[in-house]
Amino acid sequence: MAAYTLPEGFTEFDMFTFGTALLVGGLLGFFLNAISIVSFLTVKEMRNPSNFFVFNLAVADLCLNINGLTAAYASYLRYWPFGQDGCGYHGFQGMIAVLASISFMAAIAWDRYHQYCTIWTSKISCLYPVGQNGIIWILSIFWAAVPLMGWGVYDFEPMRTCCTLDYTRGDRDYVTYMLTLVLLYLMFPAITMLSCYDAIYKHFKKIHHHRFNTNMPLRVMLMCWGPYVLMCIYACFENVKVVSPKLRMVLPVVAKTNPIFNALLYSFGNEFYRGGVWHFLTGQKIVDPLIKKSK
């Protein structure tokens, strides 16, 4: 067995606890998102432009689950076995998944607005969402690759068994890169979701039929990612090392639970997607509900 030294501020029990949290969250999210993905691929009736957004969200979240499971494996080993280069690739892969996941949440909100409130989605070509999804993936890969080119750096989390953008440096490169990400991948998606779901809520109130809780998607995203992003913003202006290493590990672990909630909200809780999942699991078909548009 390889020799290892426990990271500062962590005990054997801490390593086991965090590893178990990452393992349970990763496996549960992987299982739920895998069902969502396989359902879309096997049930032909599910393959429409709106469900394609949900499918891509599940793919992004599955990638984040794999990132968390890798960290869980290293946590049980008590050390990172893949070297410094492996750390960079781990951070890169995780960043792609995070940026894509948040982008697809905003895209789904935009698509749902048109589903419920306009007649636009009934007229669009299936090629349009393919192009939009492709752009989201390309931009996510680009912005995740930027630290590999020197604008920011991927390095170890406090427990040294997983890797992310190094927020402990607090230099100009980190500050400018992080604030850019906050603007593009938190504020803009959050504003998009807020405006779209507010319009949907008004439509539901008008027809006296609330098909789903329009507050939940944005609340869940902010609940999972908000505390971690706040810590990263704090690191832009103050020395984040004064924050307990354990707290700095709790926040990304909480953030990595987002794929679980996304699967429950967007796949199993989506009236146009869950029928296909049920069909895949049981073989029983469910007729898609009709939408009453605003006049």
Automatic annotation (TrEMBL):
Pfam families: 7tm_1. One of its GO terms (molecular function) is G protein-coupled receptor activity. It is a multi-pass membrane protein. InterPro entries: GPCR_opsins, GPCR_Rhodpsn, GPCR_Rhodpsn_7TM, RPE_GPCR. The lineage of its organism: Eukaryota, Metazoa, Chordata, Craniata, Vertebrata. This is RPE-retinal G protein-coupled receptor. Residues 32-266 form the G-protein coupled receptors family 1 profile domain. The chain crosses the membrane at residues 20-41, 53-74, 94-113, 134-154, 174-197, 218-237. It comes from Seriola lalandi dorsalis. GO terms for biological process: phototransduction; visual perception. Receptor for all-trans- and 11-cis-retinal. Binds preferentially to the former and may catalyze the isomerization of the chromophore by a retinochrome-like mechanism. Keywords: Chromophore, Disulfide bond, G-protein coupled receptor, Membrane, Photoreceptor protein, Receptor, Retinal protein, Sensory transduction, Transducer, Transmembrane, Transmembrane helix, Vision. It is found in: Membrane. GO terms for cellular component: membrane.
